[in-house]
Amino acid sequence: MTICNRLRAIARPISVMCCLGLGVAGCQAIPGDGPWMNGAKSTSTEALPFDVIDLTPATVVAYRSTDTVSQTSATGELSAGIHATAAPGDVLNVRVFEPYEGSIFPTIRSATSASLGNQRVTDAGTIEVPYVGKVQVAGLDTRQIEKRIIDQLGTKAQDPQVIVEFAADRTNTVMVSGDVKQPGRLSLIEGTRSVVDAINKSGGLASGPTGAPSSTTQFEVVLRRHGNVIMIKQFSDLLAGADVPIEKGDEIIVRPNSQVFTVLGAVTKAGNVPLNKPNMTLLEALGEVNGLSDERANKTGVYLFRMGDIEENPNGRARVFRLDLMQPVSIFVAQQFGIQPKDVIFVTNAPLYEYNKVLTAIYRSFSIISTARGTFNSSNTAITF
Hints:
6-stranded mixed beta sheet, 8 helices, rod-shaped
């Protein structure tokens, strides 16, 4: 009984180890590094929550990267300067001249000051001008205000000349905040015409943590007007021709770039990758992670997952794009396919790599068994009758 109990005690862990080893080997046969896309190959796309699209020279046309460099800047249609308009709270300096001595207003050569003093625009949008009374100026630029004063003077003055300037401007400004060197208010009267102008006059983009200049592709710009966000664009896109004009009261916020894509699976360096250039292509995206892993990657199994546009089209289906890099033409296809924020690129493992994982697990299982057997033999020799 003593010998039988000893044998049972030794055999039991061996059997447990065998079962665990075979179980591990069986689990390794199931791909654990990402989705199993064979289901997408054999199943109708109607039954899937996404559409599967093979990337070919014919299908990639609809997904080409858009070239924004050739776009014409929206500021090209603006005049050489912005004519700021008056609003309640602004302070105007008004001067009126007449060409002849003895008139109600001094001449240009007269030693008497022609300035009527600073005129604050009231909440009703008016200013007070001697011999004229109230003049409605809200919404008018300086040239229009000058003409209105002349019109209201009528016959009270002979060929009057009126000069109107902003003395203190509290409303004809834009606010620039966020990651710029000198955040604060900027006056439109000084020639600030567009978003890029405002950022440049605020000292440009803030420096990086080491003091080095920050890349333009690391920031996006938000333009808020009357409390509503009317634009969110990459700063690099604004520089490439997508700049927009600004109005008084606008708020410009410069913030870190939130546009990234994700690369997973059999690549050299997986993880989240910022869109560090406009119009990045799939080939460039793979280059950002140092390409595919030579030992692991299945070149016929490169997939890109893209969610539908939930905001614009709630019923839109997600899409899975499939690329076979074993085909030489696929390199040219990858050069045309444009990457979007939140895209997920997944490179599957090669079948041989999966088989090697299984064989390695089986080898480890037999190693455990051999070790246990050696322990059993050593114990058996120690048994005495």
